[in-house]
Amino acid sequence: MVRDDAGSTVPDGSADLVLLNPPFHTGATVHAGLAPRLFAAAARMLRPGGQLWTVYNSPLGYRPQLTRIVGPTREAGRNAKFTVAVSTKPESRA
């Protein structure tokens, strides 16, 4: 486990797995602007075939962003409050 600021000290392509619960509040205000930065950082850190597991409040609907930024994304679990999504970084093309 590494505690870091968006993985700034983690080398590119060095992780098989990243776990993420992006913050979405600034004080009492909902602000989801940090999430795309964290998704991009995770994508950078992942090896091809590596996975990003993200838990987020279901109403935020991050799945399209995860698919666009990281790669194919599936829902691993969901209830009215939370979603767990698994995004896989595509394998490198030869």
TrEMBL record:
Gene Ontology process terms (BP): methylation; rRNA processing
Methyltransferase small domain mapped to chain residues: 2-84
Keyword rRNA processing attributed: yes
Pfam families, sorted: MTS (PF05175)
Classification via InterPro entries: DNA_methylase_N6_adenine_CS, RsmC/RlmG, SAM-dependent_MTases_sf, Small_mtfrase_dom
Entry keyword set: Cytoplasm, Methyltransferase, rRNA processing, Transferase
GO MF term list: N-methyltransferase activity; nucleic acid binding; S-adenosylmethionine-dependent methyltransferase activity
UniProt keyword Transferase present: yes
Protein name per UniProt: Ribosomal RNA large subunit methyltransferase G
Origin species: Clavibacter michiganensis subsp. michiganensis
